[in-house]
Design brief:
Elements: H1 2-17, H2 23-40, H3 51-56, H4 61-67, H5 76-88, H6 90-104
Helix pairs in contact: 1-2, 2-6, 4-6
Length: about 110
């Protein structure tokens, strides 16, 4: 499962780096992440080298919203709590945005 995830990620990054059609590699990557997420339940901050850079090449509003999310709040305490929420749920929010982008078919 993890090897399929890593392999699909590497294929997606290679497609992004070579400026070829990203959709087939992206679909494989999203499919592999769905299996991985179901098995692990991981939610925290999921980041791999070139992940964000490659995802941005999709020019997806839902994905970019997750990548660009900033802590909000009127007080330092509210901003700190918001920051923790963003970090602790980044993976599930990112995977949901990736699935949404895939389903949009653009």
């Amino acid at each position: 499962m993890e090897l399929r995830l890593k392999s699909s990620f590497n294929d997606f990054v290679a497609a992004a780096d070579s400026n070829e059609n990203l959709r087939p590699a992206f679909r494989s990557f999203v499919d592999a992440t769905a299996v991985w997420q179901k098995q692990t339940g991981y939610q925290y901050y999921w980041v791999w080298p070139k992940l964000d850079e490659s995802l941005r090449k999709l020019k997806s509003a839902p994905i970019n919203a997750v990548l660009d999310a900033k802590a909000e709040g009127k007080t330092p305490d509210e901003r700190e709590q918001s920051s923790y929420r963003l970090v602790e749920t980044r993976t599930t929010r990112l995977l949901a945005a990736m699935q949404k982008e895939l389903e949009s078919g653009q």
